[in-house]
Specification:
27% of the residues are buried. The strands form two sheets. The protein has an eight-stranded antiparallel beta barrel with strand order 1-2-3-4-5-8-9-12. Helix content is 13%, strand content 62%. A hairpin with a 5-residue loop joins strand 4 and strand 5. With 199 residues, the chain is mainly β.
Length: 199
């Protein structure tokens, strides 16, 4: 019996001592689940950073928002770009994936992202000669940090403006690396699974 009283006494003391911790935990900001899926389609103007070349691309992608802490949305972005107007020097296509952080401010949703993936450079007009090698195409790891803004016109649709600063491996230049820049303008559609978070 004394053992039972001792256990109850210890449990009571432990519970009392943990009360301040539980009230503190309730006052701290907590992460809430906020599942959202959006898709975008856009036109991209890319400066290839090779022989003054420029591409006009079609860019499409999806964003899956997984978590919100206060006003900051954490997403995973997947995007691909394909050149529809390749110029006369080279064309670049890429497939990228990475994290995106967005800060909603009313209808404005500015964001930053950091995408990584694969890209392919096709050299036009029969290839490009560098040294003793004629390059027809080359594949590269692509690193692409960027910034952008979605301006929501309705609950589900938005205008998108986006800029990416990329880094590609390139064997056909002396430095072995190029840094293309791309500017994107298009539209975003939001598939809303929990609209109460967006109103």
């Amino acid at each position: 019996m004394s053992d039972t009283r001792s256990i109850l006494k210890r449990a009571t003391i432990t519970a009392i001592s943990l009360l301040p911790l539980s009230s503190l935990a309730q006052s701290l900001p907590t992460a809430t689940q906020k599942l959202q899926l959006s898709a975008f389609l856009a036109a991209t103007r890319t400066s290839t950073d090779f022989q003054s070349g420029k591409n006009l691309d079609v860019t499409s992608g999806t964003d899956l928002t997984l978590l919100t802490l206060r006003q900051l949305d954490a997403s995973v972005e997947l995007r691909g770009s394909y050149p529809v107007q390749r110029g006369s020097v080279s064309s670049q296509k890429s497939f990228l994936l990475g994290p995106k952080l967005q800060y909603p401010m009313g209808n404005f949703r500015p964001y930053i992202d950091f995408l990584v993936g694969r890209g392919r450079i096709s050299y036009l007009n029969g290839g490009y000669i560098f040294g003793n090698v004629r390059y027809i195409r080359s594949d590269s790891l692509v690193i692409s940090p960027g910034i952008g803004l979605d301006l929501y016109l309705t609950h589900r649709t938005a205008l998108k403006v986006d800029f990416q600063y990329q880094s590609w491996d390139m064997p056909a230049v002396a430095t072995g690396r190029i840094t293309p820049g791309s500017a994107t303008v298009g539209a975003t559609y939001n598939f809303d699974f929990n609209s109460r978070h967006l109103e």
